Amino acid sequence: MELEILLLLLVIGAVILLFVTERIRVDVIAVLAALSLTWLGLITPEQALSGFSSTAVIAMLSVMVLGHGLDRTGVTTRIGRSILGTAGTGEKRLIATASLVTGGLSAFMQNVGATALFLPSMLRLSRLTGIPSFRLLMPVGFAAILGGTITMVGAGTLIVVNDLLMQADLAPFGLFAVTPIGIPLLLAGVAYFALFGSRLLPENGRQVTVTPQEELIRTWNPPCCISYLRVPVSSPLVGRTREEVHLISDYNLHLISLAEGGDILYTPWRYTRFVAGQELGLLGNTDDVERFLSDYDLRRVRAGRSAANVMGDPNVGFAEVIVRPYSSLSGKTLRDLEFRMKYGLEVLILLSGAREQRRDLADQPLQAGDSLVVLGRWERILALGTNKNFVLVTPVEGASLREPKAVLAVACFAGAVALTFTGIPIATSLLSGALFMVLLRVVSIEEAYRAIDWRTLVLIAGLIPLGIAMDQTGTAAFVADQLLAVTAGQHPLVILLAVAVLATFLSLIMSNIAATVLLVPLVLAVAVVPGLDPRGLALLVGLCTSNSFLLPTHQVNALLMGPGGYRNRDYLRAGGALTVLFIIIAVGLVYLFSF
Question: For the whole model, what pTM was predicted?
Fold first, then answer.
């Protein structure tokens, strides 16, 4: 064994050990690995820094900006509502539905793009349902990777396989030739998390950035459970007003939205009359909702399918406001002020001195320094903050939402994805989409910079030189030759298993495209042995270089690591058995169809 190969294997071993023990942050490990290769003379200084200008980093940066643009225009909220309406709020059904949709989309577009589209939606669903993001993101990300195996254009590795087959004068695979293998892989991944996700997914994620909304909810613990009810013709509620049914005093419920004829009214006035067909959004305890539902013969509506869905609206939120000293409102009650009608906001909590009130708020006189927790549309909250009688404590998160730009945001994203099918490199295509989002003022350039997770980019950029060293020093070829030499003359299943394990291993420490380019010529040479199908072996390489679940080295895993608050051990725990399951299914089906 040459000295360069030995040194590189030692570096790889040290990197894997650091990843597993987590003594150092992953991005620092990646930079340390790149510099170590330079210090040892295995690559040049220029190669050590080449990852920062790589297409993978540019593509990752671009999808972060594209995803932010979709989120800021409300597109992700609409996607989240659709998923919520289909799956409900149950964790398993929500994960399964989102995984199937994401995996299906990944069959026809790059899995990083599919993940970028659904990432903001899943984060918003996490806030709406109370399911932690670290329970949702990993299964959906894995499904995006698995979905790329459904067609020959779903993953870059499979596209490369066809190119290499044509170079070797072998027939390429048709678009859906891999579908009988890819669909079982995706379904197995979905079933895997449905059956074992509760034990494999992290119970407590790493602390991620807390938004002002989350901080307010933790501090005040306002009622956050919203139920949606429809008023049938036979209901005794028909014709009565909110004031007459004493929603707050008798049921401790807040009517925060009322939908009728396609229109939605937030925090309706107390003299608004109920009519048949209306859908009500009620904030409060489930037991109180059940009591109100029973008393007035109402019908439940699933949250995602209700026209009155308020918490799925990014323009609505909680805020804390304080009555100013010397305010002209001192001594007046919320009823005197007709607060709900005048300001369009629902008061949920009133803190006056040391006394906190959550019921019978309407007749409580306000005093200077009183704190109010309100719920309503952001523009109403912002208007209240400019009123001389109030001080707005909570930052207005939704003030910069640009729903009229939603069509432009979708066009930029779809255009970027479409460009990838014209032969333009994915990084160039996605960066073009991100640039047009800035030029069309979907997002500002300052927002674009803030949307980028630099830790993720440094992780990817730092690991790319490791792949360069694997190729340049001949280490990858050495490992492949040794393994294939051991399996020479063995049963085809043994050879297939060895190829699958080798492809999986190399995909963890070098780019999956590079691993495919390296291994396909080697397995084609091995396939001269009678009984081995060279196209089948090449296809197995293309599949198993996407089997990247053990470490956050795949672009999809790296993209989700920050928002999900994941650690390396989380990938090892959840991805370990899935990696083995992937190999078993891929090897078994390739053997069945090709040998």
Answer: 0.65
Residue 77's CB is within 10 A of a number of other CB atoms, namely 24
* Cα–Cα distance for residue pair 200/214, rounded to 1 Å: 26
- The torsion of the CA quartet 476, 478, 482, 487, rounded to 10 degrees, works out to 50
Structure tokens belonging to residue 293: 């539902």
Please report the pLDDT score of residue 219 as a whole number.
67
User: Which residue's entry shows tokens 């050590």?
Assistant: 48
Tell me the angle at which helices 512-526 and 454-472 cross, rounded to the nearest 10 degrees. 30
Give the integer Cα–Cα distance in Å for 467 and 461: 11
Cβ atoms < 10 Å from Cβ of 209: 8
What does the CA dihedral 274, 277, 282, 287 come to, rounded to 10 degrees? 100
Confidence (pLDDT) at 590? 93
Contact between 112 and 59 under an 8 Å Cβ cutoff? The reply is yes
**Which residue in the block uniquely carries the two structure tokens 């225009």?**
73
Gap between the Cα atoms of 416 and 438, Å rounded: 14
Separation CA 531–CA 38 (nearest Å)? 44
Residue among 297, 316, 287, 291 at smallest CA distance from 230: 297
The dihedral sign for the CA sequence 87, 91, 97, 101: positive
Find out whether 507 and 470 touch, Cβ atoms under 8 Å.
no
Whether 318 and 373 have beta carbons less than 8 Å apart is answered as yes
In the chain, the amino acid numbered 325 is P
φ, ψ of residue 108 in degrees (nearest 5)? -125, 5
Beta bridge partners of 230: 279, 299
- The torsion of the CA quartet 170, 175, 176, 177, rounded to 10 degrees, works out to 0
Report the alpha-carbon distance of residue 63 to residue 144 in Å, rounded: 14
Helix (H) or strand (E) holding 10: helix 3-21
For 542, half-sphere exposure in the C-beta direction (CA atoms, 13 angstrom radius) is 33
E strand or H helix that includes residue 438: helix 426-439
Distance from CA of residue 446 to its chain's centroid? Answer: 22
DSSP assignment, residue 390? E
Dihedral pair phi/psi, residue 265, rounded to 5°: -115, 125
Which regions in the chain score pLDDT beneath 70?
1, 56, 76-77, 80-81, 84-85, 87-89, 124, 127-128, 153, 204-224, 262, 303-315, 396-403, 484, 527-531
Q: Is the dihedral of CA 359, 364, 369, 373 positive or negative?
A: positive
**Cα(586)–Cα(566) distance, integer angstroms:** 27
Looking at the DSSP bridge assignments, the partners of residue 283 are 226, 254
- Dihedral of the CA atoms 134, 135, 139, 140 (nearest 10)? -70
In the 8-state DSSP scheme, what is residue 201?
S
State the chain's maximal CA–CA distance in angstroms: 94
Closest residue by Cα to residue 68 from 138, 115, 121, 120: 120
DSSP string, 167-191: HTT-PPPPTTTTHHHHHHHHHHHHH
- The first and second tokens of residue 279, run together, are 């859908």
CA 327 to CA 334: how far, in whole Å? 14
User: What are residue 280's phi and psi, to 5 degrees?
Assistant: -110, 135
pLDDT for the residue numbered 116 = 73
